[in-house]
From TrEMBL:
<dbReference type="InterPro" id="IPR006062">
    <property type="entry name" value="His_biosynth"/>
</dbReference>
<dbReference type="InterPro" id="IPR006063">
    <property type="entry name" value="HisA_bact_arch"/>
</dbReference>
<keyword id="KW-0028">Amino-acid biosynthesis</keyword>
<comment type="pathway">
    <text>Amino-acid biosynthesis; L-histidine biosynthesis; L-histidine from 5-phospho-alpha-D-ribose 1-diphosphate: step 4/9.</text>
</comment>
<feature type="active site" description="Proton donor">
    <location>
        <position position="129"/>
    </location>
</feature>
<dbReference type="InterPro" id="IPR044524">
    <property type="entry name" value="Isoase_HisA-like"/>
</dbReference>
<keyword id="KW-0963">Cytoplasm</keyword>
<protein>
    <recommendedName>
        <fullName>1-(5-phosphoribosyl)-5-[(5-phosphoribosylamino)methylideneamino] imidazole-4-carboxamide isomerase</fullName>
        <ecNumber>5.3.1.16</ecNumber>
    </recommendedName>
</protein>
<keyword id="KW-0368">Histidine biosynthesis</keyword>
<dbReference type="GO" id="GO:0000105">
    <property type="term" value="P:L-histidine biosynthetic process"/>
</dbReference>
<dbReference type="GO" id="GO:0003949">
    <property type="term" value="F:1-(5-phosphoribosyl)-5-[(5-phosphoribosylamino)methylideneamino]imidazole-4-carboxamide isomerase activity"/>
</dbReference>
<keyword id="KW-0413">Isomerase</keyword>
<feature type="active site" description="Proton acceptor">
    <location>
        <position position="8"/>
    </location>
</feature>
<comment type="similarity">
    <text>Belongs to the HisA/HisF family.</text>
</comment>
<dbReference type="InterPro" id="IPR011060">
    <property type="entry name" value="RibuloseP-bd_barrel"/>
</dbReference>
<dbReference type="InterPro" id="IPR023016">
    <property type="entry name" value="HisA/PriA"/>
</dbReference>
<dbReference type="GO" id="GO:0000162">
    <property type="term" value="P:L-tryptophan biosynthetic process"/>
</dbReference>
Length: 236
């Protein structure tokens, strides 16, 4: 199971939000400083989110993101603000190992098929962000249907993996909700990466036993509630 420390970027700084709300943000320094911290502690993969892109400014933070790619040598998956095929292609051509397609995949599902055909399915992750079992898009504001149904659709379209973010527990540092994860794993053959609520080594143990492919660690990692070392030890 792969561990992805989160490097979420807002206004050029590495931040963590609570429940995806920009007014509930805590800054932790530059994106490169944070990325280097995690790679120095043993991470070989990073999860970058361009929050300015998610909030509508897709061109912002490009320099910081490219700096992390170039300077760390880590495997990088990137989401946030990818609103078109050209946006996705631009990041893949710039050195991102794989892109996470969220709102675009819901509004234009065929983009998954096209990107997978052009770049290979292993470089395309479909984002499944869910609240109360419903996919939510556009900054987690708009419901868009059952998350299991969308996961199956993305599998049919050729996505290489799914990123499941449980919005109900994201950023709260109160632990995972296992049942929605279990339902998803039982519904797809795709590798599934989990984000949201991972706060204790026991959460990591649970997800590993369930068979998830990777975990994204954010707020609890930055606050020190769980250490990267603890998570890596469980995964290894």
């Amino acid at each position: 199971m792969r561990v992805f420390p989160a490097v979420d970027i807002l206004g050029g700084k590495c931040v963590q939000l609570v429940q995806g709300k920009r007014e509930n943000s805590t800054a932790y320094g530059s994106p490169l400083e944070c990325a280097r911290r995690w790679t120095d502690e043993g991470a070989d993969s990073l999860h970058i989110v361009n929050l300015d892109g998610a909030f509508g400014d897709s061109g912002k933070n490009a320099e910081q993101i490219k700096s992390v790619i170039d300077e760390t040598g880590a495997f990088v998956q990137l989401g946030g603000g990818i609103r078109s095929l050209s946006d996705a292609a631009g990041w893949l051509n710039a050195g991102v190992d794989r892109v996470i397609i969220g709102t675009l995949a819901i509004k234009e599902p065929e983009c998954i098929r096209e990107l997978s055909a052009e770049y290979g399915s292993d470089r395309v992750v479909a984002g499944v962000d869910a609240r109360d079992g419903q996919v939510v898009v556009s900054g987690w504001e708009e419901p868009a249907g059952d998350y299991i149904g969308w996961a199956k659709r993305f599998e049919e379209l050729g996505a290489g993996a799914l990123l499941f973010t449980n919005v109900d527990v994201e950023g709260l540092q109160e632990g995972i909700a296992a049942d929605p994860v279990r339902r998803l794993l039982e519904s797809t053959y795709l590798p599934v990466i989990i984000a949201g609520g991972i706060s204790l080594p026991s959460d990591v143990v649970t997800l590993k036993k369930m068979g998830v492919d990777g975990i994204v660690m954010g707020s609890a990692l930055y606050s020190g509630k769980i250490s990267l070392k603890e998570a890596l030890e469980v995964c290894r």
